[in-house]
Design goal:
The structure holds two protein chains of two kinds. By secondary structure, chain A is mostly beta strands. Chain A has no helices and eleven strands. Chain A has strands at about 5, 10-15, 20-25, 30-40, 45-50, 55-60, 65-75, 75-80, 90-100, 105-110, 110-115. In chain A, strands 2, 4, 5, 6, 9, 10 and 11 form a seven-stranded mixed β-sheet that branches. Chain A has a four-stranded antiparallel β-sheet with strand order 1-3-8-7, with no helix packed on it. The termini of chain A are far apart. Chain B starts with a strand and ends with a strand. Chain B is mostly beta strands. Chain B has strands at about 5, 10-15, 20, 25, 30-40, 45-50, 55-60, 60-65, 75, 85-95, 100, 105-110. In chain B, strand 7 (about 55-60) and strand 8 (about 60-65) form a beta hairpin. Chain B contains no helices and twelve strands. In chain B, strands 2, 5, 6, 10, 11 and 12 form a six-stranded mixed β-sheet that branches. A four-stranded antiparallel β-sheet of chain B has the order 3-9-8-7, with no helix packed on it. Chain B has a two-stranded antiparallel ribbon with strand order 1-4.
Chain lengths: ~120, ~110
């Protein structure tokens, strides 16, 4: 139980285009979803926290107009990287907490690797 | 601000060797401490956790003890297996909050 999926698993796009990444909780209701970014050989950095039906809360230094987060249902959150540039290339990971286990436990997706050319 | 520091990897061991992956933290108050494991191609999974000083978390033969005096949460296993090859992340979270602060991860490879 408590499976989180991400789609796509990897994406290559041209500079200036927008890319949407989906995060789904497959067998539980995710009241809260988190988006992380991971650079090579570095730790996961929290970008934003979103609660279903509410606006996301962004961490300091994360551009909310650049990284659009939508959490429209209890099983789906999306991250859209708008007007992507090469410096946005990274590994993006989502996690979810909710009806599976206690609220403190986050279940992680496998990640999406983005390469912007 | 809060931070977590793990020993640099990669770590390569032979099967049945003893494993220690060091983790220290900087935080105000008394955070909960976690170890997550990421197997190839999969998402991070919670391996074990401890919520207060002197607590010991354990799972799958792994153990870690919350040491307030040394602000540490070192991960240990007495006899590793090839299937333990993965990336291990130490993390903290303040109780009542949901924000996880991660270390940089340690890649572990176990050779048969």
């Amino acid at each position: 139980g408590a499976v989180v999926s991400q789609h796509p698993s990897w994406v290559i796009c041209k500079s200036g285009t927008s890319v949407k990444i989906e995060c789904r909780s497959l067998d539980f209701q995710a009241t809260t979803m988190f988006w992380y970014r991971q650079f090579p050989k570095q730790s996961l950095m929290l970008m934003a926290t979103s609660n279903e039906g509410s606006k996301a809360t962004y961490e300091q230094g994360v551009e909310k107009d650049k990284f659009l987060i939508n959490h429209a249902s209890l099983t789906l959150s999306t991250l859209t990287v708008t007007s992507a540039h090469p410096e946005d290339s990274s590994f993006y990971i989502c996690s979810a907490s909710g009806s599976a286990g206690n609220q403190e436990t986050q279940y992680f997706g496998p990640g999406t690797r983005l390469l912007v050319l | 601000g809060d931070s977590v520091t793990q020993m640099e990897g990669p770590v390569t061991l032979s099967e049945e060797a003893f494993l220690t992956i060091n983790c220290t933290y900087t935080a105000t108050g008394y955070p909960s401490l976690f170890w997550y494991v990421q197997y190839p191609g999969e998402g991070l999974q919670l391996l074990l956790k401890a919520t207060k000083a002197d607590d010991k978390g354990s799972n799958k033969g792994f153990e870690a003890t919350y040491r307030k005096e040394t602000t540490s949460f070192h991960l240990e296993k007495g006899s590793v297996q090839v299937s333990d090859s993965a990336v291990y992340f130490c993390a903290l979270m303040h109780q009542g909050a949901q924000k996880l602060v991660f270390g940089q991860g340690t890649r572990l490879t176990i050779n048969p």
